[in-house]
Write a structure and sequence with these properties.
The protein has 462 residues and is α+β, with helices and mostly antiparallel strands. It has twelve helices and 15 strands. Strands 5-6-7-2-13-12 form a six-stranded mixed sheet. Strands 8-15-14-11-9-10 form a six-stranded mixed sheet, sandwiched between helices. The chain starts with a strand and ends in a 5-residue tail after the last helix.
Length: 462
């Protein structure tokens, strides 16, 4: 048994009927030259479960909600429940697969079971398959998901190193009510002892950030904190999900970053800004103010495979600027400022504060927030970038050709753009609800066009 940390618990409490907090990991699989199908994948997963510990965790609530829930480890897993077969409509292209992924994303996970499902999609063109993994964000953040995926796959190919495989016959023991209460009391005592230091660090960090902000002065082309403007991107989120995907060349992205003198992450944010500018002009008829992107950042980049060790940056996106090179310059500036403030405040501070969320009241507060029809002044959109596997992976001898990932939607902000690198490409995924776009592929088309525009501005030929 182990306690959910503050960020894990927050992602659990913030799940509401219209705001699901599971993430998706999508792997497109090309079985060429291998005997691969649903049964082959089932055998592969069954023999790997002992390496994928979070898939054998189950939530255990504390009596009277006296503390955050705990994970019961080494639980039995019913693969007949967790593995599902789905059919991609003809002709089995990207749009048809994206439609299936949107339906998978629209339903919450059952908290009485381990918090994951794998949907095996058949019927893709070219005899391909897709694996749509739905995993609760409380189980794993981006860093943990990358490491978990590496364990699930044969990263070095079917003829490379042999991963330790075996059947899973160990089952965990459920703690008694008395054990749960004693553990809660111990953890509360520890938290009470740590509280004065947390208050001191928070006060010191906020004072230093305010001082540094005054030293920098105002910048008219950057959005002010807590002043996200109202846009068509911001409204009460509906329960239904829509998904769209696209790919970009990693080599082109790196070349563009080098030519512009910025980082790859800056290129991704500048590309998102250009795409969102196009969408704002189309839907709102104007893009006259910078908007704010919530950008998650890891505070621990170890080889862990579970838990959330993350914080967030609020980064101004200059959607009001027409010139792509100038947008990239402003994104790089905004990112530097956000990172500097994050370091001054303390990268772990946000996660430390989440540990003190009141278990008895937090879920109700998040439900109210999720249905509140008021502007989200904190952010307009979520944009994240994760470095995925650098070597091609395989499932049961079949090569994984593409990987996509999604984050979660936030109250009043029903658009999440997640970019995962995999081998030589970037998988761009847009998750939204059914009220924001006429077609979610408008977003991926706008992002792709924005990158072409940015690449041209950098002098990189097609």
């Amino acid at each position: 048994m182990k306690r959910l940390n503050g960020m894990d618990a927050m992602l659990l409490y913030s799940e509401t009927p219209n705001l699901h907090t599971h993430t998706l990991k999508v792997a497109v699989i090309d079985p060429a030259g291998s005997e691969f199908d649903f049964e082959a994948f089932r055998r592969h997963l069954r023999r790997r479960l002992h390496l994928l510990e979070p898939l054998r965790y189950k939530l255990v609530d504390i009596p009277w909600q006296l503390h955050h829930p705990m994970w019961q480890e080494n639980c039995e897993v019913d693969l007949d429940y967790h593995l599902r077969r789905v059919r991609v409509p003809t002709p089995g292209g990207r749009r048809e697969l994206d439609q299936v992924i949107g339906r998978v994303a629209s339903t919450p996970l059952d908290r009485s079971r381990p918090l994951w499902e794998f949907h095996f999609a058949e019927g893709l063109s070219g005899g391909r398959f897709a694996l749509v993994g739905k995993v609760h964000h409380a189980l794993a953040d981006g860093v943990a998901s990358v490491n978990l995926l590496a364990r699930a796959m044969d990263v070095y190919g079917p003829t490379g190193d042999v991963t330790d495989e075996r059947d899973n016959d160990d089952a965990g023991v459920t703690a008694s009510r008395a054990d749960l209460l004693r553990a809660a009391a111990r953890d509360h005592a520890r938290q009470i002892a740590e509280l004065p230091g947390l208050i001191r660090d928070a006060a010191t960090g906020l004072t230093r950030v305010r001082r540094r902000s005054k030293e920098r002065g105002d910048h008219p082309d950057l959005a002010d904190a807590f002043d996200a403007p109202p846009t068509f991107l911001n409204h009460v989120v509906s329960p239904q999900r829509r998904f769209a995907s696209a790919t970009l060349s990693l080599a082109d992205v790196k070349a563009t970053a080098k030519a512009l003198g910025i980082t790859v992450n800056d290129v991704i944010l500048a590309t998102a800004a250009g795409g969102l500018r196009t969408l704002l002009l189309a839907y709102d008829g104007a893009a006259d103010r910078p908007i704010i992107a919530s950008v998650p950042t890891a505070t621990d980049k170890s080889d862990r495979i579970t838990g959330n060790e993350i914080s967030g940056l609020m980064i101004s996106l200059p959607v009001h600027v027409a010139d792509p090179a100038e947008r990239a310059r402003l994104v790089a500036l905004a990112t530097r400022i956000a990172k500097e403030d994050h370091e001054i405040l303390g990268p772990q501070l946000y996660g430390r504060l989440m540990a003190y969320l009141p278990t008895a009241f937090a879920p109700a507060a998040f439900r109210w927030l999720g249905q509140r029809d008021a502007p989200n002044k904190l952010m307009n959109v979520a944009v994240s970038s994760v470095v995925g596997p650098r070597e091609r992976g395989h499932f049961g001898g079949a090569a994984v050709s593409e990987i996509y990932s999604t984050g979660v939607l936030s109250p009043g902000a029903p658009v999440n753009i997640t970019v995962w690198s995999y081998v030589d490409q970037l998988g761009v995924a847009v998750l939204t609800d059914d009220r924001t776009f006429d077609d979610p592929h408008e977003a991926t088309d706008a992002i792709s066009a924005s990158f072409a525009e940015l690449r041209a501005a950098a002098g990189i030929s097609a």
